Amino acid sequence: MDELKLYTYIAVFGSFAVYFGIAWWARAGSTSDFYVAGGGVTPMQNGMAIGADWMSAASFISMAGMISFLGYGGSVFLMGWTGGYVLLAMLLAPYMRKHGKFTVPEFIFDRYYSKTARVVAVICLIIASLTYIIGQMKGVGVAFSRFLEVDYDLGLYIGMFVVWVYAVLGGMKGITYTQIAQYCVLIFAYTIPAVFISLQLTGNPIPQLGLGSTLADGSGVYLLDKLDMVVTDLGFKEYTTDNMGGTVNMFAYTMSLMIGTAGLPHVIMRFFTVPSVKAARQSAGYALVFIALLYTVAPAVGAMARLNLMNTIEPAAGQNMEYSERPQWFKDWEKTGLLKYEEKNGDGKVQYTADKATNEMVKVDRDIMVLANPAIANLPNWVIALVAAGGLAAALSTAAGLLLAISSSISHDLMKGILTPDMSEKNELLAGRVVMTLSIIVAGWLGLNPPGFAAGTVALAFGLAASSIFPALMMGIFSKKMSGKAAVAGMISGIGVTMLYVFQHKGIMFYAPSSFLGDMEPNWFFGISPNAFGSVGALVNFAVAFTVLKSTGPAPAHIQQMVDNMRIPHGAGAAHDH
Q1: 401: number of CA atoms within 13 Å, CB side?
Q2: Helix residue ranges per DSSP H, 380-533
Q3: Which tens digit of pLDDT belongs to each residue from 327-356?
Q4: Do 475 and 509 meet the contact criterion of CB atoms below 8 Å apart?
Q5: pLDDT per residue over 469-480, tens digit each?
Q6: For residue 340, what is the enclosing H or E element?
Q7: pTM, whole model, 2 decimals?
Q8: Domains of the chain: residue spans and CATH
Q9: Confidence (pLDDT) at 324
């Protein structure tokens, strides 16, 4: 066994052993343990768990890959996801924690006094969560297929089994403590290679500063200027210009990601695991710090990965790499099918250009950039192995959170809440585990037949959450007169118009955002791409809800009093009508 494979086995299976051990130690004995970890998680622990739950395969594997190819335009993912988290922490999480229920549909049922609203919320949640989980399963398959040198399908089965063990056994309690371990793995796996590569390219060990530094070769050229020169020489757009299809689309995309983030049920659920509203606010602050450790490094990782890739294939102007002398990392990724070369002019050299007619790099999957970057930069084998463990930790942690959100919405909200209200706690716990097992099987099938690359499908999931769940939560907290019928009409309209638009442009939805590098589609609504349409869907949701409210009348007085109580801080006195 070669050294890299040995290190990879140690890093990957060593981390899996830790996850299994934690799952056994923290196994759930009650529905409270299974859904909200008994409500006893400390703010710092919850902050780390939120960080891991938050930073999915899309954040770890795909985001820097998209920034690599989209350049400045890729910043929408940084701004949207981080801004959305702040929105969630400030506007939604504390109030929902104060209300004190297990799930998002349960909150919607209480607030809108309607079983229909609860069912619609469950359907919206499942649609958004299943779409999101595709990206995680793709990430698991990509990481396993490359680093353990197994077939993509087998890699996915291994990932499904690992998630099944700790998610089904431990529920939220097991997932929480596993995610704390996974956060530690993924943050070290992301930042250590970035430090090495920044030092190598710029002489600055801090990647965030290295991105704006001059190159270490003594030329005095800034890294981003060099990257602009390299990519434009090959016919690509400048790295530092907008590649997202215009200002309107960029704004809509950022807004869709922001409000979609704030409406994602698997992250909101994490705030129910702490003992108080104060602890919910504190854990939000901790999580933002833990998330920023990775998110501020991502632009540097993306730019440096793109520069290293270009310099490997074309080490000097007009001098292309001989295909027969391609490096080992190139051969390794070719085996996975995520990197493909096609000889077109018979010279045996690799031509990598923006012109499709002459470009011989017919496939460079964006999802490989972070995972391949350490090998491209000739970093030590233990660093490459660490990245493999980190990529898997990121994908598995979010997959587990999503599966729990799906499982609890079906077992707690549909079965216990509506279909069989007399179900015992023991049977509800069993139902939760059975539903989660079935969810893993469905998620695995979607991973085996993925509709697109990781972050592309993830962006769609955010759009679906943005157009359905977020407006319902916002109106539920900040508009005490909002009625159940109006909220249901809004949710159905929002997600309906978003899905209609997406399926009308179904070819676009499955593309990597590189489709923005071409001309804008002529039939896009105001130039807004399908992945960015969630923001429009949210506006439709709000508009329909307030229109229906005028004809149906406000919520009952006791509901309005409940909303007042939820929004008034402890010790502030009684709520007053106004």
Answers
A1: 32
A2: 381-408, 425-448, 454-478, 484-504, 506-509
A3: 888 888 888 778 888 888 888 888 888 888
A4: no
A5: 899 999 999 998
A6: strand 339-340
A7: 0.79
A8: 3-306+381-458 (1.10.4160), 317-376 (no CATH)
A9: 86
